[in-house]
Design brief:
binds S-adenosylmethionine; seven-stranded mixed beta sheet; four-stranded antiparallel beta sheet; alpha/beta
Length: 263
Amino acid sequence: MKTEKPWAEFFDGHAPYYDENSFTKNTIAEVQFLTEALGLSPGAAVLDVGCGSGRHAIELARRGYRVTGLDLSAGMLEQARAKARAAGVQVTWRHEDATTFVVGEPFEAVICLCEGAFGLLGQGEDAIGQPLAILQRVAAALQPAGKCLFTVLNAFAMTRRHSDEEVAQNIFDPLSLTERSDCLPSGVASDSPLRERGFVPTELILLFQMAGLQVLNIWGGTAGNWGRRRIDLDEMEIMVLARQGADPAGQMPLEDLTGLGDL
Ligand SMILES: C[S@@+](CC[C@H](N)C(=O)[O-])C[C@H]1O[C@@H](n2cnc3c(N)ncnc32)[C@H](O)[C@@H]1O
């Protein structure tokens, strides 16, 4: 039988080793950056979508925020729970799908980092519907004018590293900006292909708008190199800062989104 959520299977297998990845080693600096970018008030309620092993959620809880971590992978949540216990902090962990999660108390801020669900496509999920569903849940979970911060895969880099042969082999699909692989961390082939999706800034702005979120800034967002700076074409990730609700003045001009003046 096909696995409907191959990413849950993937991350269940990867969970014991996830924190060994080099891209996880900047958590404290990342949390410092995001608390400032989101302008979190003391003790704010924060939701971490696709929280994984809980590295940001736990560091935020250490700093006194009221944190909820949500993830599809039971294995990743098991790691997160053990780490929170060892750190002596309280986090509410929820085993749910980011595309359908139930909204309860409003959050002042939502984070969705390092492709926490966004663009990690399940069986039968399409490249527009999946991220849009997540953004709609995030918009519903936020308090009015609450902010969210995402880091998502950069489609420019994805496109530049694939050849026409790989397009012909269906390893990279330029139509959906989706990469495909069949291998689980164990090296075993998955029943269902793993598909991950890159994004370009203009479609991110439109997707966020469709969900009722206004994009405030778009910066380069590769783990280990977060900053209020322009996107490098070959970097892994793009960062999006947005707020709930439309600005009556409309979306700000594209050239203002780096916050760095004219392009
Ligand atoms: C690359 S990890 C990122 C984890 C964490 N945000 C970080 O920065 O280390 C992606 C996480 O997204 C989770 N995930 C994938 N699809 C999901 C979905 N549909 N709903 C919720 N979580 C999902 C995975 O289980 C995994 O823990």
